[in-house]
Amino acid sequence: MEQFDAIVVGAGFSGLYMLHKLREQGMSARVYEAGDNVGGVWYWNRYPGAKCDVESIYYNYTFSDALYKEWTWTTRYPDQPSILRYLNHVADRFDLRRDIQFRTRVTAAHYDEKTRAWQVKTDDGKTVAARYFISGVGCLSAANRPDIKGLDSFRGEVFHTGTWPHRPVDFTGKRVGVIGTGSSGIQAIPVIAAQADQLYVFQRTPQYSTPAADRPYDAEHMREVKENLGEIRTRIRDSWSGVPRSPIAMDRSALAEPPVQRRQTYEAAWQHGGWIHSSYNDLITDAQANETVAQFVRDKIRSIVKDPQVADKLTPDYLFGTKRPVIDTNYFQTYNRDNVTLVDIRQDPITEITPDGVRTAGTEYALDALVLATGYDAITGPLFRIDIRGKDGMSLQDKWAGGKEIHTYLGLANAGFPNFFTITGPQSPSVLSNMVCSIEQHVEWIADCLCHLRDEGLDTIEATVAAEQTWSRHCAEVAHTTLFPRGESWYTGANIPGKTMPFPIYVAGVNVYRGICDKVAANGYEGFALTRSGTAR
Ligand code: NA7
């Protein structure tokens, strides 16, 4: 059986950097990747209009000055082709591909207590062994194909935004249906509307979305940025979300300002584009403050959408930001087009999909193509697709009661699963942060940890049950100081029938979180049991 120091799953931002760090430290590693090239979620997410909503200059690695200097982003928000080009460049620049096995899915990883190694099985029928098993599967990589009666009978083409084909898709002259209005749907809808003959949008829940105000970066700005990576890195790391914010905006309460001034602040944020919820410091902790921004966005929707009945259907009534907020390019404007019809499937539910289209209780919509913008089995979904078993054959799925009870230490490690690390795992800042910032932090922490084990001649590291309980409790306590757990969203599995999760994200901020992780390491990996040749330390 082939043996490695580490096996890494996934060749997205996490897996690529993890591989680079492992190599730098002289460790042998193999990355398994299901796709036939690098990119992770950005390899699969090729739907029309796919973009990241973290600004380009922050949504990239900051570990290498040379890499930062040689890459030039051309627009404020990076689109999917640019991100994929960037990750291909990283893979080539650091010569990563030779340790990545593409077109291979990891199906199982079992910890063998006798050899203190992970046995990793892949769908090509092989098994390899490694001391460390590292997940870089991401949080949004298990596509949610909805279980709608008759879906397989549809005669036209069916696409999922998360597994878009790698060939051009042309909707010209076609009648297209889009189910779902999350980030993916909201990005795709204006682009598809401009191409298709008719577009029908099947909306279950309306969204708060604000303009991205995407624009080209000018050359002078990029030059300055490249000269200042050190400062940018510090601002990223010192922020709450991994995206630097204006400190002036962040230290004010929305309720402390008179309504006229508050509206001016929101208007300025709306015009500037991007995340409006960082305008004040209590929009996500105080329901009354939250209502001020929610009402502002509702008014905007009503002012943009000409048909008041359509505007009503598009207007959300829940807490702002508890469902992942979205930024868009001409989303609400798209409903003013003659070729776009909004179908509110809460009022008029889809009863089935027929060979010819979508049938609701009231109407039949004839379609040539159907786009499922129905999101992901998020956060736990990608991990549960692998049969991960720790000591005594315990599966991760059982340990977390199918996701109903998540217990981790720092969102990085699990009691009962020695030498297993989850990059951006549940109970870390993950999807409520700039993922690249959180990935770099986790990868560097894991790499330092593995060096420590090697230098000290230690075989295993395993979270203690006590540390895990304390962390999970702390995570929940912090979450409940915010409004996040009150929302119905993929954060808690509300989008998947039968799935419920405790709120799985550590929301004290990437700055606070980094400090905690660093302290754990500085204190000799406090909260972990470290073993050498069978003895616990
Ligand atoms: P999201 O944000 O989960 O959006 C999925 C959308 O699909 C959302 O509007 C869902 O409605 C809708 N949906 C899901 N299942 C169904 C069924 N069965 N019937 C009708 N409508 C359905 O996924 P995205 O891909 O847009 O974005 C994921 C993340 O990627 C995003 O947040 C960013 O972090 C990047 P619901 O709201 O559940 O009622």
From TrEMBL:
Q: Does the keyword NADP apply?
A: yes
Superkingdom of origin: Bacteria
As one GO molecular function, the record gives: flavin adenine dinucleotide binding
EC number(s) in its UniProt entry? 1.14.13.92
Q: Which cofactor does it need?
A: FAD
Q: Respond yes or no to whether keyword Oxidoreductase is given for this record.
A: yes
Annotated family: Belongs to the FAD-binding monooxygenase family.
* Protein name (record): Phenylacetone monooxygenase
